[in-house]
Amino acid sequence: MTIWGLMHVGMMVEEDAAGGVTGYIKHHLTHLTVDSGHGAFWAFHLDSIIFTLVISFAFILLLSVVARGATSGVPGKLQAAVELLVEFVDGMVKDTFHGSNKFVAPLAITIFCIVFLENFMDILPVDALPAAAKLFGVEHLRTVATADLNTTVGMALGVFILIQWVGISSKGFGVFAGEWFTAPFHAHGTVLKVLLAPLNFVFRLIEEIVKPLSLSMRLFGNMYAGELIFLLIACFTLGAALNQVSTYALGLAQFGAGVVWTAFHYLIITLQAFIFMVLTIVYVGIAADKH
């Protein structure tokens, strides 16, 4: 959240203030939803989809501009920043992933940048974009796609499918399927292999289920909590009047709390994007290695 947002967010939500703190928070945590007519499970969170597509397009456009304007001479600031990021991620991939797939480094860079940019939307003033959308008749709008469990689960399932594909393509289907019944408990005798096969299968099943769960829930939980804290800070001056002394005291407290949390949140959004990227590299590397 910017300083402008911290100074104004509590003063510009009179309509939301009518429902009190609970009504204000519920309103801001409600998605722009398209009902498919088959129940809540099949509803589409249109705001998460739109912001994900816009951020993805902006990322592709930005890298395209940098690539076309790249020079072997003295690079500009943007090119230098991109080169530093590429070198850092490429070095990490080489240290973590020992396979021969050339797509892993580009995949890691894409994951980090997309997740970071989606997380960065949480830094914007909580009322800025929703208020602008309301001018066009949009009642609800959430801007942080990674604070939506649908988004994080979708990304985690994409990584999960990629893991299975890398495992099969690297080892062959027979070896890949056999590992489900021969690891982590290895045996040499036929009888012992048969006895341990069900136990190995259960452990492998749990291991595979935990991977998308850990990816999705960690990112969602941190971003949802961050968004909620920004909303609570905005509530400091919710419905306050300018002729009350307490308004200015609460305004100062709101400003201070917002600056501190914003500074800390920069670390969180970067760290969560980094963790999602690193775990993806690790999981893909594990899938490619023979046990």
Description of the molecule:
With 291 residues, the protein is mainly alpha-helical. It has one domain (3-11, 20-33, 44-68, 75-288). 71% of the residues lie in helices and 1% in strands. It contains eleven helices and two strands. It has helices at residues 3-8, 14-17, 20-28, 46-68, 77-96, 104-120, 128-134, 149-171, 173-182, 190-234, 245-288; strands spanning 33-34, 44-45. The protein has a two-stranded antiparallel ribbon with strand order 1-2. Helix 6 (104-120) runs antiparallel to helix 11, helix 8 (149-171) crosses helix 9 (173-182) and helix 8 (149-171) packs antiparallel against helix 10. The chain starts with a helix and ends with a helix. The model is unreliable at 1-15 (pLDDT under 50).
Task: Outline the low-pLDDT stretches.
Answer: 1-15
Fraction of helical residues: over 70%
User: Main β-sheet, in a few words?
Assistant: 2 strands, antiparallel
Structural class: mainly alpha
Instruction: Estimate the global geometry from the Cα principal axes.
Output: globular
**Fraction of residues in β-strands:** under 5%
Q: SSE string, helix = H, strand = E?
A: HHHEEHHHHHHHH
Number of strands: 2
Terminus-to-terminus distance: 47 Å
SSE diagram, text form:
Blueprint: H1 3-8, H2 14-17, H3 20-28, E1 33-34, E2 44-45, H4 46-68, H5 77-96, H6 104-120, H7 128-134, H8 149-171, H9 173-182, H10 190-234, H11 245-288
Antiparallel strand pairs: 1-2
